[in-house]
Amino acid sequence: MQLFLMRHGEAGFNAQSDRDRILTDLGRQHTALMSHWLAQHVRDFDLVLVSPYLRAQQTWQELSQHFPEPRHWLVLDDLVPTADPAHVAALILAYGESYNAKNLLIISHMPLLGFLVSELVPGVEPPLFATSGITLIDKEPDHASLLWQHAPHSIG
Asked: Is the peptide bond between 111 and the residue preceding it cis, with omega within 30 degrees of 0?
């Protein structure tokens, strides 16, 4: 299973709550840039799991323009910044297995994403994710590897 973990695009702070923050113009541009780059490396996604927060939903809307409709996509209330990484890692893997997903995209937030990498790839320190940044983890039944991590500034 290929797990593509993506942080939402840059978001403004002018909102009623953290949950309602929206992407800035730069956040949309960087997400479009990463979407175009990612489309050169993966053809489609079997399953997409997205945070309920507005900026993550908007990131998925931008990204989805560059890919065919996934077989399944779900909004998961557990994909919030302060979620328990062990619980979320188990949940992601369970959804991946139940939907028989080969390519799985997760759009969420820091610090959860960094801690998820450590949960999924034992021995790896939690990396930082730039906004619109993506990390690829190759997950085999008995082994996981962090293959790469890219952000808008590293693909140009």
From this structure: yes
